[in-house]
Amino acid sequence: MIEIKDLHKSYRMGSNSLHVLKGINFKAEDGELVAIMGSSGSGKSTLLNILGMLDVADSGEYTLDDVPIKDLSETKAAQYRNKFLGFIFQSFNLINYKSALENVALPLYYQKVGRKERQEKALSYLEKVGLKEWATHLPSELSGGQKQRVAIARAMAAEPKVLLADEPTGALDSTTSYEVMDLIQKINDEGNTILVVTHEEDIAHMCKRIVHLKDGVIVEDKKIEQVRAQQYV
Amino acid sequence: MFDRDIWQEIFHTLKNNKLRTFLTGFSVGWAIFILVMLLASVNGMQNGFTSQFNDDATNSIFVRPGTTSKAYGGFEAGRRIQLKNDDFDYIKSSFPKDIEYISARYYSRTTARYQSETGSYGVQGVHPDHQIIEKTLITKGRFLNEADVINKAKVAVLGRKVAEDLFKDEDPLGKFAEFNGLPFRVIGIFTDEGDDNAERIIYAPVSTYQRIYGNTNDISQVLLTYNPTYDLTKALEFSGRLEDLMKRRHKVSPEDQAGIYVWNYAEAFDDISSFSAVLNAISIGVGFLILIAGIVGIGNIMVFTIKERTKEIGVRKALGAQPKQIINLVLLESTFITAISGFIGLIFAWVILSVIGPTINTPAFTNPSVSLSTVITATIILIVAGVLAGLIPAIKAANVKPIVALSDK
Q1: Torsion A108-A111-A115-A120 (CA) sign
Q2: Which of A11, A79, A109 to mutate to test the interface with B (most CBs of B within 10 A)?
Q3: Which of A39, B104, B209, B353 could disulfide-link to B88, CB 3.0 to 4.6 Å?
């Protein structure tokens, strides 16, 4: 599903160049749930941005679902993001003047799905995350956990190949965190490929594989026994 | 563009930022209001000028003989030129396409008497067309007609003052007044907007007067109006041709300004129209400058809005919004504010003009109003302005890097 080879990325900081990713090789199969761990500055967010086509690597190859991701125009990148990827952010990034339903329907709007179908689909995803009754509420009327669940529904609405979650539980307390992880696990159980960037050990252990990043290289890549979040909820 | 979702978003933003929307809209609405009012004022002044000259037909030309100031064609300078009936016929037949109405004028004076009342008045021997050229208003009876001229009928049309002086309270129509002892039947009374003196004259058929008082073919002037479809250039070109012809006919040097005068009303109008054209240009200029201030205001606010919504735009891009969709959103929003507020300004100005306009009627300023074409132009300007105002912010928005927008730092 995802394959990257010898990925390099450096940022220019004034006269200095900061080498963030120093040759990453990584492969994720269909249906995997991978945790990308690392301390701050290890390059995990940069890696996720490149995977999410929000940033471009300096060198190396990136293939997503057998499509080479290279030299994309803004428009093409937007289309690929819409078609291939679903984003889940630490700070939810819901559009605050749109209702939960409208937020979920937004990626479908950019897919040019008709209004009625869009709303039906969005509602079914909201139902899936257990927020059907909250469809007409604005994000400001939802709790943190609810917001993240709306965000997850939004990420899934476009039926992407891969879900990219950047610290999805970073802004939540532990009980809510487990609820969100439980949801992510369930989505993964249905066969969706999910990458989770986190620095929390317990969250990482709820995935099926942990990739450890340190100073721009992968230092460890192991499959683990998944801890189900269900038991903590 | 007619996507319901885009409009929904625009209304959302505007509703959530009422004060901002109002302030931005106000600057554009105000600009359009001033632009329209300025144009209407110029229009009012133009109307004022025009009505001042309305006493005579605005497309009239006078041909008047004078005394030559240059020796020419074997004649000494200082020769008096006299127009004759032939000249009248000649002009009439030479320019059938150019001339609308034409009349000769033969000046005379008479002592008029009715019963015990007498008075001395100017008499003008004229053709029937004279009524239209001079815009003479008949209040009673009729003006002279062709039959009167052909039959050399002893009929007269009296000015309102003349009728008052001679006939007092009596109805003069059909009565006979004596002009230098000869009885003339009164066939009509006229008024003139000019002044009282213009109503102290008597019109009689030119042929009658030429026969009775001097048995002459002389005429004092030729008055005519040119084809009303002519524009200024064509009118001036025609009076030029007429002048050349008359000078050649009377052997007056083409350079001689005194031998024959051909006075074209269009020349006076030329000055006025160029004056109001300058005024028009100035007011359009001022209006535009104010409008530019309004556009910059909207652009400014839009830039601010984009900054405020950077994160949202980043999210949209992450969700698959294409740059052109973002540009669309911003442009449509700015065009919408501009157009709506501009229309409000336009309607406001229009209402004020249609309420107050018709009541204003001073010599220099009459019925200020705007034409449909002005309104349409203003509308087009508004939409263009809205697009311009939104363009830079829209490009800025399209260039928002989602990664920067989404960083939580």
Answers
A1: negative
A2: A109
A3: B104
Q: How many domains does chain B have?
A: 2
Q: Does one domain contain both B24 and B47?
A: yes
Q: Residue B409 — pLDDT band, cuts 50, 70, 90?
A: very low
Q: Which residues of B touch A (CB under 8 A)?
A: 4-5, 12-13, 16, 311-312, 314-325, 398, 401-403, 406, 408
pLDDT at site B338: 83
Domain ranges for chain A: 31-58+72-232
| Mean pLDDT score, B236-262 | 88
- The range of the structural domain enclosing residue B77 comes to 60-267
Residue A51, CA distances (Å) to B93, B281, B333 in order: 93, 59, 33
| Residue with more model confidence, B278 or B366 | B278
Any idea which fold A31-58+72-232 has?
Rossmann fold (3.40.50)
pLDDT at position B55, please? 54
Q: Give the residue with greater pLDDT, B265 vs B161.
A: B161
Q: What is the pLDDT of residue B363?
A: 65
* A to B CB pairs, distance under 8 Å: 62
Spatial contact of A233 and A182, defined as CB atoms under 8 Å apart: yes
| DSSP state, residue B72 | B
Measure A59 CA to nearest chain B CA, in Å: 19
| Residues of chain A contacting B315 with CB distance shorter than 8 Å | 93, 95
Interface test with B, best of A97, A117, A167 (most B CBs within 10 A): A97
Q: How many CA atoms lie within 13 A of B272 on its CB side?
A: 19
